[in-house]
Amino acid sequence: MKLDRSRAALVVVDVQEAFRPAVVDFEQVARNVAILVRAARILELPTLVTEQYPKGLGHTVPEVSEHLDVTPIEKVAFSAVDADGFAGALHRAERDQVLLCGIETHVCVNQTAEDLIADGVEVHVAQDAVTSRTAENRALGLHKMERSGAVATSVETALFELLGRAGTPEFKEVQALIK
């Protein structure tokens, strides 16, 4: 159940401006999501990003979007899997593992995890890169995902699994992100 660079993709769910004042630990979560996005680029992991109704909720926050080299997929469905273009993009990436992060843990992140698991994708949820409006809802979302078969992880744990070893140029670059 370790993340494998040749199998994994990063999925970033709805880290948008409207959530900044509304959710618990937004700044820390946005910072951790940005670390994942930057590391995914270093490790050459496919990255998929969604935005829930951006006309109303705004776009992906600058601290994350400045590191993206992909266009976010707009959605109105809660699950990213139901967004136009998401399933096709994941299929084209030929990945059967997802490292999942974003907002809100108990709604869009949870429903995305549930649908990915139902589709046979192994889901790893970075607990320090997800949040909700309340700590209770965050905990509930994490619990539901784990009960459904998602693997709980952290940003640092996930990155070291993806690296696999020290002493490489990628190791030094990723290590600098988490110091």
Could you walk me through the main structural features you see in this protein, from its secondary elements to its overall organization?
The chain has one domain (8-178): Isochorismatase-like (Rossmann fold), CATH 3.40.50.850. The model has no long low-confidence stretch (mean pLDDT 97). Helix 5 packs parallel to helix 6. With 179 residues, the protein is of the alpha/beta class. Helices cover 44% and strands 20% of the residues. It has helices at 26-42, 54-57, 62-65, 86-93, 105-118, 135-147, 155-163, 169-178; strands at 8-13, 47-52, 73-75, 97-103, 122-131, 151-153. Strands 3-2-1-4-5-6 form a six-stranded parallel sheet, with helices on both faces.
What would you say about this model in short?
This protein is α/β, with parallel strands linked by helices. The protein is about 45% helix and about 20% strand.
Number of DSSP helices? 8
Strand numbers in spatial order across the main sheet: 3-2-1-4-5-6
Give the tally of structural domains. 1
Distance between the termini: 25 Å
CATH topology: Rossmann fold
Question: What structural class do helix, strand and pairing data support?
Answer: alpha/beta
Order of helices and strands: EHEHHEHEHEHEHH
CATH architectural arrangement = 3-Layer(aba) Sandwich
Q: CATH homologous superfamily name?
A: Isochorismatase-like
Spans of at least 5 consecutive residues with low confidence: none
Q: Portion of residues in helices?
A: 40-55%
